[in-house]
Amino acid sequence: MRISGSGTLSAGKIDDELHVSGSAKIKGDFECNGFQSSGSLRGEGNLTIHGDIRSSGSFRLIGSLHGDGNAKSSGSMRVGGEILVKGTLVNSGSLRTENRVEALQGINVSGSAHIKGGVSSQKLIKISGSSTIHGDVSGYDISLGRESKLSRNIYKHLSKVYGNIIARSYVKLIRTLVEGDVRGRDLYIGEGTVISGMVYYVDSIEVHKKATLANEPIQITERDLNL
């Protein structure tokens, strides 16, 4: 199904992909077999995509977004509920959610993000853009923030996490504020990072001289890490 002008869809399900290059509005919960938009979408319910999600325009959804495939956004995306995709989530635009974000196969955010809920994945979580997360961040490997080549940074903390960071393997934090605990196998606490909670590691830890830890790091066992 293609909408290249202006259109309104009722709640329901179509056994087809939905392509939007104009302006579309969905009244209620909706299901389709794939979604691609370079225009404007407004949804008043939950949206379930049995396939990949690709959006480069304006995307506004009151409910939750669920996808069986991968999700890629380079425009503006705002979701009132949760975002749950079974593949990877890649965002290079603006992402705002009022609930959790989960992508089982990995998350890569290079744009801006404001997430009022946890962030989780079974694979790598990499957030290099400006981000604020209200909730825990949990994944296999976790990388937040990035080095700056500017002599004066616009953001004192590029990433802010008001929760805990929990990784089964590697954690890398640069210019990141963490209000909770940090837990992982190998930790790199980079320049400009501030951690208010406890820091736990299994094998190794490196702390930059311009990082601030409220507490001394504690070495734990593998069993403690997986609790």
Residue stretches low in confidence (pLDDT < 50, at least 5 long) are: none
Helix content: under 10%
* Total DSSP E strands: 32
Shape designation: elongated
Arithmetic mean pLDDT: 93
**Global structural class:** mainly beta
Radius of gyration: 19 Å
**Sheet bearing the most strands, described?**
32 strands, parallel
How many DSSP H or I helices?
Answer: 1
Strand content: over 45%
Distance between the termini: 47 Å
Topology:
Layout lengths: L1 E2 L2 E8 L4 E3 L2 E10 L2 E3 L2 E4 L3 E3 L3 E3 L2 E4 L3 E3 L3 E3 L2 E4 L3 E3 L3 E3 L2 E4 L3 E3 L3 E3 L2 E4 L3 E2 L4 E3 L3 E3 L3 E3 L2 E3 L14 E3 L3 E3 L2 E4 L2 E3 L3 E8 L4 E2 L3 E9 L4 E2 L4 E2 L2 H4 L2
Parallel strand pairs: 1-3, 2-4, 3-5, 4-6, 4-7, 5-8, 6-9, 7-10, 8-11, 9-12, 10-13, 11-14, 12-15, 13-16, 14-17, 15-18, 16-19, 17-20, 18-21, 19-22, 20-23, 21-24, 22-25, 23-26, 24-27, 25-28, 26-28, 27-29, 28-30, 29-31, 30-32
Explain what the structure shows.
The chain is mostly beta strands and 227 residues long. It has one helix and 32 strands. It has a 32-stranded parallel sheet that branches.
Keywords:
1 helix, mainly beta, 227 residues, elongated
Short description:
With 227 residues, the protein is an all-beta fold. The chain contains 1 helix and 32 strands.
